[in-house]
Design goal:
Layout (H helix, E strand, L loop, with lengths): L1 H7 L8 H21 L4 H8 L3 H4 L1 H13 L3 H7 L2 H20 L4 H29 L10 H11 L13 H24 L4 H23 L13 H30 L5 H29 L2 H18 L8 H28 L4 H34 L5 H27 L11
């Protein structure tokens, strides 16, 4: 333990760093797992809650929207509340939201529970990285439920942040809520109201205007909620763009594929999880390897190769039918899950390595925030394309749904192409002198 501690040179000494980080690791794991695990159950939830495709996707987009709104406030919260207060509050929010959703008998009740869960995840996720950097390097820990994590938090978490209680810029908070909500609401409503409807255009215009004012305000504030000045760094801007696109591909696939398996191939829910498992395992394995590849090869080639491989996976999924063999779907998913993490880790590392000092924390906060917002937008757009393709043909429901999945996969293919083009402009550190 001493060797690890000496390597990191912990800035804050605590009695037991492992116990201090354990509730945060478990809480973050449960929160991120909940972000995509629900996708497998969406077709069944549509039937149980008697809602359509455009409504059920709010269980996913609403959750990520709330996370995206809360994440930028993490730096402010750590200056107003102690570490233990934040950890316990975050886990409590998640557990309360889980109970509300679990016992929910209506769509609105389940949605409220999901959004409360999002508050908890939005508090815990950035706090995990902050505490880990201060007290100990994070390591892989076994999975356990949120309630156990809450119990541990009462006894093990120590306070590592300093309470300064700076002035809260409520206008920035309001603008971010209106901006992000407007964008995601407009995109979500498009699946049933149409892109040219007043409802959709109104939400999008309000959201865009609010975000414009939000960004301008952050650039003028002495202590902004999100430091937008980090985008002056070339590699951070490109890396952030690649991370956003890559995350959009991943979330779209995680949303579309389980529904295709159940509604297109008529696969049972339990078997859906098994079919998705190999791709998930490959994703985790490649992520670990890709993180090390940056040290040897930089970000240029891993990101380019990653998006090319992702293109192949998305293309294979775009030509599935109602009679495609299971092995084909698994293979296409594995290929996609090789490409996306291969591009993700180097892009993220390149973006953060281009920043120094306090800007590194600012960049991390921005990346965490945009991932959630882009994930919500990508899910909403995938739903819109799914609905468009589903309504463009006649025939059996399985055939119509599969055609809708094709449209969603075309959207993913477009993202891989855009990602590859942007990756062509990525420069490694040594390239600036050439």
């Amino acid at each position: 333990m001493e060797e690890v501690s000496n390597e990191m040179q912990a800035r804050v000494e605590v009695r037991n760093p492992w116990l201090a980080i354990l509730p945060l690791m478990l809480g973050a794991f449960v929160g991120m797992f909940s972000e995509t695990a629900l996708n497998i159950a969406l077709p069944q939830l549509m039937k149980a809650l008697a809602v359509g495709q455009s409504s059920i996707q709010w269980l996913v987009t609403g959750y990520m929207l709330v996370i995206g709104i809360v994440l930028p406030l993490s730096s402010l919260l750590t200056k107003w509340f102690t570490t233990k207060q934040l950890v316990i509050s975050g886990l409590a929010f998640f557990i309360i939201g889980s109970l509300i959703s679990g016992f929910g008998v209506s769509f609105s009740m389940v949605l409220v529970g999901r959004m409360i869960q999002g508050v908890g995840t939005g508090i815990i996720l950035p706090l995990m990285f902050t505490v880990a950097m201060l007290v100990f390097p994070p390591n892989k820990l076994g999975s356990v439920n949120g309630i156990l994590a809450l119990v541990i938090a009462f006894f093990s978490v120590e306070n590592v942040n300093q309470i300064t209680k700076p002035k809260i810029d409520f206008l920035s908070i309001i603008l971010s809520i209106i901006g992000f909500s407007g964008l995601i609401a407009g995109t979500s409503f498009a699946s049933h109201a149409g892109w040219l409807s007043i409802q959709v255009l109104g939400c999008l215009i309000v959201g865009i205007l609010a975000l414009v004012f939000y960004v301008r305000r952050q650039l003028k504030l002495n202590v902004p909620i999100l430091n937008m000045k980090v985008f002056k760094h070339y590699n951070f801007t490109l890396g952030a763009g690649l991370v956003m696109i890559d995350f959009g591909i991943i979330l779209s696939a995680m949303y579309l594929l389980p529904q295709y398996l159940q509604n297109g191939l008529l696969v049972a829910v339990a078997l859906t999880g098994i079919i998705m498992l190999p791709g998930g395992l490959v994703n985790a394995l490649v992520s670990a390897v890709a993180g090390r590849m940056y040290d040897n090869f930089g970000a240029k080639w891993p990101t380019r190769i990653g998006f090319l491989i992702a293109f192949v996976g998305a293309f294979l999924l775009s030509i599935v039918t109602t009679s495609s063999p299971i092995w084909y779907v698994i293979l296409a998913h594995i290929i996609l899950m090789i490409g996306t993490p291969l591009a993700m880790s180097p892009a993220q590392t390149s973006a953060l390595n281009s920043l120094k000092g306090i800007e590194s924390a600012d960049g991390s906060a921005i990346l965490n925030t945009v991932q959630q917002i882009v994930g919500a937008l990508a899910t909403a757009l995938a739903t819109s394309f799914l609905t468009l393709g589903r309504n463009s043909v006649g025939g059996a429901e399985a055939f119509r749904f599969t055609n809708g999945v094709h449209y969603g996969m075309y959207f993913m293919i477009a993202l891989t192409v855009v990602g590859f083009i942007i990756a062509l402009f990525v420069k490694d550190d040594g390239d600036y002198s050439k």
